[in-house]
Design a protein that fits this description.
Shape: globular
Radius of gyration: 18 Å
Structural class: alpha/beta
Strand content: 15-25%
Number of helices: 5
CATH architecture of one domain: 3-Layer(aba) Sandwich
Order of helices and strands: EEEEHHEHEEEHEEEEHEE
CATH class of one domain: Alpha Beta
Length: 298
Amino acid sequence: MKTIATLILTTGIAVWAQGPPITHEPPMSGIHWAKGQAPPSGGAGTSPNLNYNGGPIMATSTTMAIFWGASWGSSSFTGDKITGLDSFYSGINGSSYAATCNEYGDSTGAKVTSASTYAGHIIDLSQAAKNGNRTTPILQEVCTALANNHITPVANGYYAVYTDTPRGHANFCAWHSAGSCNGVNVQFAFFFSLDGDPGCDPDDTSGQHSQGLAALANVSGHEHSEARTDPRLNAWYDSSGAENSDKCAWTFGTPLLTFSNNTKWKIQGNWSNAAYNGNTGYPNSSGQNGCLDGGNYK
């Protein structure tokens, strides 16, 4: 079994070894709206399929989780969430779930593959951002956490920031974006704490995970899939800007998906142009048969 490294930050002092403070606010993308909060998408007569917009994809990805906030030092708050997300990301590599993104390529001839390395996690016990409405504090946290732990960012890096901040009145659960640390392009994502949050709960009744972990796993699959197919926010999305996971949000084809490490998760599927064109996927919330999850729908 692969050993997952744990790195602990106990100070909030920013060490800008990876470059100066971010001065350009990156956009949010792939917003995972809470249940019933997604704005209307598409229009009459428009194809629901994703369009290629010229940007790169990530043929392979290297993921690191960053658990940010003082509550991550409390066992009662942490529960099974850190160990569970370690298993979640470790099991994506080579899974049939990961393969649901593999039809998408870019202008260089590269295609998304199911190769996804998990590089472990960092725990930062300093005060986390109080809301997720801005991308700059999250990118700064990524750059600072990596620098303080002497970790060099990588261009195919996906850095998932899990805060201890509850969603409150925000109408979304998570998002992903792109920026740079010391001139190295990176992909990153933001996640609220979703303990006891019905608006971001996939209703996993399997008993295999706590509610909070199950909720984080579902939205984590969403953002990770979008980062692979649209890492710089200029590759694959539809005519209204929806990415592959956006189009299948809150719809599930298989009760529990089995990952490559035999862990099981309730995870929504991802949009497939090929499945929609062949009428072989399961329906999204608009009734369009274009979703694949790698389980019953491949």
